[in-house]
Specification:
Layout: E1 2-5, E2 8-17, E3 20-28, E4 35-42, H1 46-55, E5 58-64, E6 81-86
Antiparallel strand pairs: 1-2, 2-3, 3-4, 5-6
């Protein structure tokens, strides 16, 4: 996709392979060298996060699907936001 703000041009290319989002961002601005950024983000399922969080001794309070605190839906939500707290330690 391409966005243009005045004379600034930002091009983004994304692909998902092996549960990883690969994104290339190209920025063109008059009078400046072209800038290219590559981003790689590993995707995890809620089940994987639940295990990581439990293994760390943490407790999940809520899982949201966006910044507006809508409920998380694996197929529809644009992101996964998890809130929680540290579990109490017993002696």
């Amino acid at each position: 996709s391409e966005r243009q703000n005045g004379s600034l041009i930002i091009e983004e290319q994304r692909c998902i392979e092996n549960n990883t989002v690969n994104k290339r961002i190209l920025i063109r601005e008059p009078g400046r060298p072209e800038r290219v950024y590559n981003e790689r983000v590993k995707l995890y399922s809620l089940r994987q996060f639940e295990k990581f969080i439990a293994d760390a001794g943490l407790i999940i309070d809520q899982v949201y699907g966006n910044y507006d605190q809508t409920e998380y839906d694996q197929k529809q939500s644009p992101r996964m936001i998890i809130t929680g707290h540290k579990g109490s330690e017993t002696a």
